[in-house]
Amino acid sequence: MSVLDRFRLDGRVALITGGSKGLGECMAQGLAEAGANVAITSRHLDECRATAERIAQATGREVLPLQGDVTNEADVQATVAATLERFGQIDILINNAGTNVRDATLELSVEDWQRVLDVNLTGCFLYAKAVLPHMVARKYGRIINMSSIFGVVGFPARSPYTASKGGLLNMTRTWALEFAKDGITVNAICPGPFDTPMNRPLKNNPEAYQAFVSRIPMGRWGQLEELASVAVFLASDASSYITGAAILVDGGWTAQ
Ligand code: NAD
Fold first, then answer.
1. Contact 148 CB / ligand 1 (< 6 Å)
2. Are 82 and 66 in contact (CB under 8 A)?
3. CA 232/CA 51 separation, integer angstroms
4. 79: which of 66, 132, 146, 235 fits an S-S bond (Cβ 3.0–4.6 Å)?
5. Total structural domains in the chain?
6. Active site residues
């Protein structure tokens, strides 16, 4: 097998949470371009269907749109069951769905704190718990958790986001250890700022946008394809000896 063939995902099946837009959409497209069939979940089925159709047409792969909230265990189990029913296997899980609240700590409500932890942390646990038994049975799996630079360093007015992304990083290491002998790798991606719907409030505020740019040694935000290629790497056999790792995709933010 040539080195480039090790990046191919032909015959693989991926399940990506929050795959209808933003980084989830671009990773779904990237994995499909590399040959995988993909299931994408979203709370909004119409949006999910439109994205699935677009990626399927662009790549010639099968893309299955599924409705589900990552914080609802019944939805998690139903979307995993639907993926297995359609494709017969799940090789790759990308825990991508995430949310953010940018309130100063003293203004933050307990409800907002809890919601961010529920989506960013508990949602990942629920999906891993639902998918891992199938991966263990097949002795193969790739789990990719979407953490953040804010899982590695702090930032003002990001209490629940930094807590959840830091927790997700260490949970990644725990799962990597727990399933290392089962042919399953578990890794995290830690992006810096990318232009997605989640970041529109920053992108549309010139001062906040520049404040972020000024902290990035490369002097610019990330481009979506710069994230998709890292996801393909971690989803493929090219990364077969990497587990428990956090890949920083941040233009140097955390190198300072
Ligand atoms: P986004 O808001 O553009 O998309 C997030 C996706 O998650 C959407 O499809 C949304 O519908 C889905 N989602 C949110 N809550 C959900 C729930 N309860 N159930 C199911 N789906 C839900 O965000 P994004 O920027 O594409 O971010 C994707 C992931 O990458 C997130 O985990 C985010 O924290 C992380 N991240 C993003 C950036 C960035 O710059 N965009 C940087 C670091 C980390």
1. yes
2. yes
3. 19
4. 66
5. 1
6. 161
